[in-house]
Write a structure and sequence with these properties.
Helix content: 40-55%
Radius of gyration: 20 Å
Order of helices and strands: HHEEEHH
Number of helices: 4
Largest sheet: 3 strands, antiparallel
Structural class: alpha+beta
Strand order of the largest sheet: 1-2-3
Number of domains: 1
Length: 144
């Protein structure tokens, strides 16, 4: 799995799922914090009609962390919200994933289950939302 896909799963995963599944891997490296974890703001941009002119929607709270393992590997973690522990875990996972052996284990035992859980939650949310959908239509009377 490529790094971008792995980091996306870590950023979008439910924090409780991440905290519960991380210790089960048995990877607990010594590391030092290079930056953070710190909370800040990021501007969210949107586009008119999905592909038109961009505009600023507003700001969201983001937490980031950067760690360095004893072997020198550096990892970064970003999460929406204020969960510093989850951002730090994501950074450690990113650093550990620089080693191909660790990356394969992390992808199989952590990332794949987290992705599956998110897909299930998204599917449930889509089903619940679809159940409340209202279709509007207009009848034309022909009096133009």
């Amino acid at each position: 799995m490529e790094r971008q896909a792995r980091m996306r799963v870590l950023a979008e995963a439910d924090a409780e799922d991440l905290r519960r599944r991380w210790p089960a891997l048995g990877l607990d490296p010594a590391f030092r914090l290079v930056r953070g974890p710190e909370v800040g703001l990021a501007t969210v941009r949107g586009r008119i009609s999905g592909d038109g002119a961009p505009f600023n929607v507003g700001d969201v709270t983001v937490t980031r962390a950067t760690v360095r393992l004893e072997d020198g590997a550096v990892g970064h973690g970003w999460r929406l919200g204020r969960d510093k522990a989850a951002a730090q875990i994501a950074a450690v996972i990113d650093a550990l994933s620089r080693n191909r052996i660790n990356a394969d284990r992390i992808d199989t035992d952590l990332i794949a289950p987290l992705r599956t859980l998110k897909q299930e939650r998204d599917s449930t949310r889509r089903s619940e939302t679809a159940a409340t959908r209202v279709d509007f239509f207009t009848l034309v009377r022909g009096e133009d």
